[in-house]
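Milestone M4 deliverable, item 7.
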Amino acid sequence: MYQSFYGLREMPFNITPDPRFLYLSPTHQEALQHLKYGVSERKGFIVVIGEVGCGKTTICRRFLNEIDPGRYDTALILNPRVTETQMLKAILTELGETRLARSQNDLVAQMNRVLLDRIARGRDIVLIIDEAQNLSFEVLEQVRLLSNLETDKQKLLQTVLIGQPELKEVLAREELRQLRQRILVNCELLPLTAVDVAHYVQHRLTLAGGDGRPSFTPWALRAIHRHSGGIPRIINNLCDRAMLSAYIRESEEVTYWDVRRARKDMNTLVA
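Output delivered:
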């Protein structure tokens, strides 16, 4: 509704994980660099942790867009609530394999052959598991065992685990100490600061084609930071509703009262 009124090319505060809209705050920049470093240096296991809505999936998609497709083959697993056999099949399918073995042992053997073939052709293989806090112990152990696949010079598979803070509790379990010892790169996404929130809002408006319309008042930005806790997904929801409120008033300015109304609308939906 407000897109044409404010002269925007597209909606600035969609909650889809579009890497083009990623705002690289210091903590997001650090996470992206950790991913690049861990993969380029073949560090084996990499863990990225962050609260719900903080931008983990967007960081992941940005990373996948930036790595060299001429060198890396990637497998992205978005639904980790699977059995060991289903996980093996999902990884092989993501790697483009169409004829899959049936038993778990045969799948592991097939995985070894596929990875060895890719390595021999100069490829590196990266497995990325999103929402990794939902992995069962058995599947985590299977993933750890896959990390045992190696040549004399390198591991055949690099694994990135991306998850919510609960992932720290999962990995801290005594029975997963062998996996924990293999995690050489570990980073955590933090909420945006008040300064970051102001830059984030302007960043998205600019990318959407904004020319200064609408403007968010300092009090509106403070309210957005306070009510969102610095979580990008909540910021997007607040800004979208606040802009709608300003549009209804036919105003060029998003005020504290628009944000307050947006917060009330969101609370009503939750209730």
